[in-house]
Amino acid sequence: MLQWISARAIEIAAVVFSIAYLYFSIRQKIFLWPMGMISAVLYMVVFYQSKFYADMGLNGYYLVVSIYGWVHWRRGNAGEGSSLKISRITRKPALILGLLTFLAFLGIGWILDRYTDSPIPFWDAFTTAVSFTATWMLARKILEHWILWIVVDAVSMGLYLYRGLYPTLVLFAIYTAMAIIGYIEWKRTLLHMNDHLPDDGN
To answer: What is the pTM of this model?
Structure first.
């Protein structure tokens, strides 16, 4: 048992920091971003060793977006002197993000299939492309990012089972459940905010 833990120490540490990241995300605490930075660095090592190259690159992106998210959340709503509020995505940005995500999926899948020894290039590309979008939406505090995470986490469970990354498989089972909870909690907060908007007299 100790030998098994020792061999997977980096992955287990990444799991711990990732759970902390998701917990603070659900609670809308800015501390999620440093937790995300640490887990991203650890998972870059894990995925490099497992030949999940797109996921390794994705965690490099997480590292950059975590810095952006930290700054953006600290600034809050510019000119209002308040913390960043939850919002919902509108049709035009949703269409643009959908198109960009699809193009990223095709591009990443082609690169992985042609230039790497990834065993499942297009599945790897799918979770990577959707995760790019979901992480950016989290940095902007958009409610629907949770829906994307539910899809990504569920698909990822199958991929990590295939590659034998069992601690990470457990993590993503927890992620899927917590993403559902996160969506419910953020939506409840958004509804509560809307209920307390000032009456314009109309």
So the answer is: 0.79
